[in-house]
Write a structure and sequence with these properties.
about 290 residues; alpha+beta; Helix Hairpins; SH3 type barrels; Alpha-Beta Plaits; 3 domains; 8 strands; transport
Length: about 290
């Protein structure tokens, strides 16, 4: 031991023999654990790289075989988490930690974490149920939990939606798997409903013909089932028609907006009015007697 170190030990009330003993013990631990630590670090780095390579290979295989996108993202996420847990256990065992003790501690910690994260585990179970029963898949437009959007990704714990105005919505899997939802993309066709009103003084038959001519001229509208039009109600200020047509699901909004505009222009061109609420105010002059 150096003179300086000896002086410091003496000033702290520690004998030279104790310092020498501690130094020898530290050296022994260093000889035992430093090589294990170095090996553990090497395993960690190589393992992390191999996991990334493996996941990248799985992704390429899925794309080459045109694998289902929904299941692909879930499997990649689940496999990545599982492999990282295995890597962590391997690194810990390499450092000489007794696995029986570690497993017992892991079990106790798992129980505590499980109780604290019961909602997260429910989301995981919900994700598994969604993959089994497949109420929707990536690319479907759905409405669930008060939100609507296109399914971008189904993760282990959450479902990611993308709205038409490019917002990202993250919804936990548990409530989606248990509650009601609407899938607008599951069926190949959808029905478009219109409501058109004309004035009481206008010709009903002429209005029906004008509307049907516009609707049937749209090639996106299916001929079978054929378009339907009927008088729906005699409202306070208008005679209302219900129009129902069938289209491909992807054409729904295009057909709706285009024909709404086209019918309005056609009715105007044929002199058929579209009533709107009006308020007439009558002023009465009251002459005061002098």
């Amino acid at each position: 031991m150096s003179t300086t170190a000896a002086k410091i030990a003496e000033s702290a009330g520690i004998s030279t023999e104790q310092v020498s003993s501690w130094a020898a013990t530290a050296m022994e631990y260093a000889k035992i654990y430093l090589p294990k630590l170095a090996v553990a670090i090497v395993i960690l780095v190589i393992g992390w790289i191999l996991i990334r390579v493996l996941l990248g290979g799985m992704k390429k295989i899925f794309k080459a075989r045109d694998f289902d996108t929904t299941l692909e993202k879930f499997l990649l996420s689940f496999t990545g988490i599982l492999l990282k847990i295995i890597l962590l256990i391997t690194v810990i065992s390499t450092m000489g930690v007794q696995m029986t003790t570690f497993v017992a501690l892991l079990g106790a910690a798992g129980l505590a974490v499980g109780m604290a994260l019961s909602g997260t585990l429910q989301n995981f179970a919900g994700g598994v149920m969604l993959l089994i029963f497949r109420p929707y898949k990536v690319g479907d437009y759905i409405e669930a939990q008060g939100h609507a959007g296109t399914v971008k990704e189904i993760q282990i714990f959450n479902t990611i939606l993308k709205t038409p105005d490019n917002k990202i919505i993250i919804i936990p899997n548990a409530p989606i798997s248990k509650d009601s939802m609407i899938n607008y993309s599951m069926e190949a066709t959808r029905r478009v409903d219109f409501l058109f009103g004309i004035g009481y003084d206008d010709d009903i038959d002429q209005a029906k013909k004008v509307i049907m001519d516009i609707i049937t001229a749209d090639e996106r509208v299916h001929k079978d089932p054929e378009p339907f039009i009927a008088l729906k109600e005699l409202a306070d200020s208008s005679v209302n028609f219900t129009v129902r047509v069938w289209v491909d699901s992807g054409d729904y909004w295009g057909v709706y907006f285009d024909n709404l505009e086209a019918v309005k222009k056609a009715l105007d061109a044929n002199g058929i009015s579209i009533p709107y609420p009006q308020t007439d105010v009558h002023l009465h002059r009251v002459e005061s007697s002098s």
